[in-house]
Specification:
The chain has helices at 30-40, 71-80, 100-118, 139-148, 174-184, and strands at 3-5, 9-15, 18-26, 47-54, 57-61, 86-93, 121-123, 128-135, 152-158, 162-169. It is of the alpha+beta class and 193 residues long. It has two domains: 3-123, Ribosomal Protein S5, domain 2, CATH 3.30.230.30; 128-184, Alpha-Beta Plaits (2-Layer Sandwich).
């Protein structure tokens, strides 16, 4: 069973006079991961290497370190801790001693792994992705019902007449959601099973 982080977490390690600051956070889509990376990355640091994994999607970046010595080990740490929907950024401040290829792999992968080990993990519950469109006057009521059912609102796009909504909900709450949305929209919006 995969896990995700309950909260963002941070860890600092010093390895051969280089300082490695690891920041990890739960994310539900690629845009959230990118926003977190942009927010955490320090332009004054020597390197801001990162990786994220969301379901079958993943990305990683070595940010100038030799190929596959930073981003790939960070991703391996995420997978090794059985985490999903997680982004990890490792910021390095060079301390004057070169670590070599093996040393970089151990430093980036190890610090990312240590950060995830100390983090509070929660079991990731399988959710079904759904999409629907509703009118503006229906949206506040539907949004409240989605919160009551613990549905994740992944995206909202507003158009001329209403809202296109992407959500994810657990299987056990799907029938209740279908009935609620059908009732609120007077049968106009039907969510397929």
């Amino acid at each position: 069973m995969p896990y995700t982080l309950a909260n963002p977490t941070e860890l600092t390690e010093e390895i051969k006079k280089s300082r490695f600051i690891v920041n990890a956070a739960p994310v539900i889509n690629a845009q959230q991961a990118t926003d977190f990376i942009d927010q955490i990355s320090d332009p004054n640091a020597t390197h801001n290497c990162w990786a994220w994994k969301i379901g079958q999607q993943y990305r990683f970046n070595d940010d100038g370190e030799p190929t596959s010595t930073a981003g790939r080990p960070i991703l391996s740490a995420i997978e090794g801790q059985d985490c999903d929907q997680v982004v990890v950024v490792v910021t390095r401040y060079f301390g004057g001693i070169k670590l070599g290829t093996g040393g970089l792999i151990r430093a980036y992968g190890g610090s990312a792994s240590h950060c995830l080990q100390q983090a509070e993990l929660i079991e990731l519950i399988a959710r079904i992705p759904l999409q629907f469109h509703c009118y503006y006057n229906e949206w506040p009521i539907i949004e409240n019902r989605l919160k009551e059912l613990d549905a994740l609102i992944e995206n909202q796009d507003f158009d001329a007449i209403g809202v296109n909504v992407n959500i994810a909900i657990t299987q056990d709450k799907l029938l209740s959601l279908q009935k609620s949305i059908s009732d609120i929209t007077r049968g106009r919006v039907i969510i397929p099973v």
